[in-house]
Amino acid sequence: MFPGGKINPKQLKQMERTMKKMGMNMKELKGVEEVVIVLKDKELVIKDAEVSMMNAMGQKTYQVTGKAEERIKGSGDSSASKEKAEISDDDIELVASQTGKSKSEAQKVLEETNGDLAEAIMRLS
Predict the structure, then answer these.
(1) Residue 13: which residues within 8 A CB-CB, separation 6 or more?
(2) CA 120 to CA 79: how far, in whole Å?
(3) Sheet harboring 34-38: ordered strands across?
């Protein structure tokens, strides 16, 4: 939320009290996987972004922190741009047995890796 990520706890409490008096509240959004900013000719993708939302008098403001990567507008993410590979039950069972994970976990990772058995096993190991 703050540059460098460090703030004195006493200052933080004081700032929270002041914001509350002004009718403002801030919270971290949990589970954010990526943020995409669409520009005229390209997109900025921030994976594993930290996002804070501040609500001040009914107006929501979002603060995004993370490393941005550029991509061609409309290209989507790499897994969406590839054709979906057919994943057989045998592949799911193989990955699950090799990693000790559940079949649903194995299937999810196989979908993410577009059916690449070796990559799926490495990710789950």
Answers:
(1) none
(2) 14
(3) 34-38, 42-47, 68-72
The continuous run of DSSP H or E covering 36 comes out as strand 34-38
**Nearest Cα to Cα of residue 109 among 89, 122, 97:** 122
Token pair, residue 23, equals 């009718």
The residue to which tokens 């919270």 are assigned: 27
Tokens 């933080």 identify what position?
Answer: 12
pLDDT in tens, 53-89: 988 878 899 999 989 988 887 766 544 444 566 888 9
Nearest alpha-carbon partner for 68 in 109, 39, 33, 36: 36
pTM of the model: 0.46
